[in-house]
Amino acid sequence: MKVIENIEFDVGSEESLSPSTIRDLVGAIFPYEWASADPASLTITRTAGYANTNYIVKRPVDEGKRCVEPVSVFVKLHGSGLGNLAVFEKHVPSKLDEARLCESAAELHRLCARPYGLLTSKTNSRTVRVDEVLDARCLLPVDVEHAHIRADIAASFAALHTIEVAGWKNSDETFCGIMARYGFNNDSSWRRLEAASIEAGVHMTNLIKCDFPTKIRQLEAKLDSMGAKRTHCIHDVQFMNVLVKNHPQPGDNHIYLIDYEFAARNYRGFDIGGHFMQKNFQWYAETQIADCRSYTRDEKQHFCAEYAKRWNEIMGDNDTAEQVLAEAELGYLLAISFDLHNMALCIDIEGSKEVSNLLAFNKLYEMFMEEWNKQELED
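Request: output the structure for the sequence above.
Response:
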């Protein structure tokens, strides 16, 4: 991976890269075929995400010509900061550390796209990353009902959780501890949420009054008491960040894991439990609650058995499926807390009063309390 600093490029007022800027940035990494490409000849597909703007860029190639550089690349223009999730700013990786994690994940276990380069603007420190293009699609809820897909996701999580990046900053405090101390302190978010729920006629009183910081501390105490393992978690494990290969080779892992912007120290059960929870949601659809059944107990046990198997292969430990599942059940509660926290902030900032958002809020809270009561944790 090339790291290029102090390069001139302009984002513009619309947070967008022009074809000529894209050509120049990619050409700085690939100085032959890309550097000489005509910007007007590029095929560019732009997608604006929550935090970043993404481009799939393809250059024309003469038929029969042998290429020494990739024909297509994935270009990511990073947003400026974490916006309304700034409470985590000091605890998530820098763009360089994130790129290094991606590089390690790609080289060691082929878990994600290989980053070709990271470029930093000379004028405002904005960053752009250029990656390989993956031939894959987003994970669907029905996919995890197939044992081989479920096993590959579990093994991929385990492999990613074992990666250590040289020079990575480690905080003694977990991501959840930060959320408990600072994340739920924005009273205006909950007041706006309450006002929106009243206006929409959606009952949310119990959720709004719930003392999540105390519950998070109780969950951490229980995880610590059982010796739950901490590692670098992805946190943002929504199904859009798990990709299924379109044309896997025989014997290949079918899965890629993408978007490590929120990677930070936490209990590994957070990612596993978060994955179980995310099956029920489709955050960028009109109806945010997915039309599917939840993970069954047998499916969870199978997932945790495959996770433990891969973890033990890499780490030389003797973890059991039961041990991993116990951590995941508590991690499930932490992951729901994280999503509730983030959704409250989004509604506060964006002023959303859509009923679908509020119903998804209630669904998360119902799932939280159902599992909380199963765990026989004190109120």
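The CA atoms of residues 75 and 130 lie 5 Å apart.
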